[in-house]
Amino acid sequence: MNKRKYNPVLLISYILIIIASLVMILPLMWMVSTSLKTNQYTLRMPPKFIPEHPTLISYKTLFSLFPMIRMLVNSIVVSVFVTGGQILTSLMAGYALARIQFKGRNSLFILFLATMMVPYQVTLIPLFISMRYLGWLNSYLGLIVPILHTAFGTFLMRQALITIPREIEESAFIDGANHLHVFSRIVVPLAKPAIATLMVLAFMASWNSFLWPLIVAKSDSMMTLPVGLAALHGRYETKWNMVMAGGVISLIPIIVVFLFGQRYFIQGISRSGIKN
Fold it and tell me: What domains does the chain contain, in order, with CATH numbers?
């Protein structure tokens, strides 16, 4: 019988992957475990990973003391519109920069890339002043409109669209199609992996956004989930079971979006930006 030969490099790789997975998964499991404990058991020593008497009291208390439904609705509305807006604007800009020949195209693309080097915090004051003059403070418009576009999304779409063979577009143009038909019927279906990648990244960034909603949303009715959860530390004396319950609630939509776009997400990461 032939003995199976084990590759030590492959074995070490598997071990490192397992260790890395545990490092990422264990904190999430501990968060779920703590959310199922009462406050008196959260800091007990030695800590117990599996709660002796699991309970949903922290979730019930959280929903009774906080307008959780309203904050969830606000976060979902903002994240969905921001994600959709960034996908649309990035696709259109990426198509123009990748497939349409015009004077100054490369210079404009470099300018897009240069804006990625500007820290987001630098733009907060000008954006806040603009929102105040427009009367969009404490509104969905103020939370959504300033972040409907993203230079990173434009870069991602441009790099992805470059990989599409030009022969497909040329055939469509010969058949009488215009740029709108090519964009909607050819480019968008072929760019699904990159779109799924941008969808996941944009949704995560918008869902977890804290600083801009903190500045714009002045009332509890417009507060998003990250801003509301931050108030748990001071208002309720840092009851960790409630903090962890809020973390679990905020994590669920991100997991759902990732699972929805997972099939295309890996393809988009591996294929975007390979060619210039």
Answer: 58-271 (1.10.3720.10)
